[in-house]
Design a protein that fits this description.
This protein has one domain (38-167): Nuclear Transport Factor 2, Chain: A, CATH 3.10.450.50. 50% of the residues lie in helices and 31% in strands. The chain contains five helices and five strands, in the order ααβαααββββ. The chain has helices spanning 3-32, 35-57, 65-78, 81-89, 91-101; strands at residues 60-61, 104-118, 123-135, 142-155, 158-167. A five-stranded antiparallel β-sheet has the order 1-2-3-4-5.
């Protein structure tokens, strides 16, 4: 191989490297402004927030009044709109009943999916299964599997649950 051939082959390799870098930069720039990427990020955020807030809404430590108050605050933080209004209006009654029952429940979302997402309107629909471990004040502890359908709304603090419905086991939905 002559010096000239080596020099040409070095320039060819350098040119190929520059072209690959340019193509990668262009591809990255296109992807950053891509609407599908923004939609996917919004979908992922809605799903993650929905799962986290659903777990909060199915969790309560009823051992004492302080832990019940903390649980009710967590419920309010996880909700918005009509659900939050309803939780706020029944808070005093709920606190009394939860302290009296003394049960502890811990919800764990085992599976969830968005069934709808309107990114422009800031709304989404979520379905999920939740295992709720219940420990009564007296008696035997157990786990119940529950299914829920939730309506989510985007707020300044992320996605929160606006409406929550239990789906009966064996229903056609």
């Amino acid at each position: 191989m002559t010096a000239r051939t080596r020099s040409l082959s070095g320039w060819a390799a350098l040119l190929a490297a520059v072209l690959v870098c340019a193509l990668g930069g262009w591809s990255y720039t296109e992807a950053r402004g891509d609407e599908t990427l923004a939609y996917a990020k919004s979908r992922d955020a809605a799903l993650a927030d929905g799962k986290r807030h659903l777990a909060r809404l199915t969790t309560m430590d009823g051992k004492n009044a302080t832990s019940v108050e903390a649980g009710l605050e967590a419920w309010l933080a996880a909700s918005t709109g009509p659900l939050r209004d309803r939780l706020r209006s029944t808070r005093k009654q709920d606190a009394g009943e939860l302290v009296e029952a003394g049960a502890t429940a811990h919800g764990k979302v085992t599976d969830a999916a968005l069934t709808a997402l309107d990114d422009r309107a800031g709304t989404a629909a979520l379905i999920a299964t939740v295992d709720v471990a219940v420990t009564p004040r007296t008696g035997k502890a157990g786990t119940e599997r529950k299914r829920f359908e939730a309506t989510l709304a985007r707020t300044g603090e992320g996605w929160k649950i606006k409406a929550l419905d239990a789906i009966p086991v064996g229903s056609g939905t």
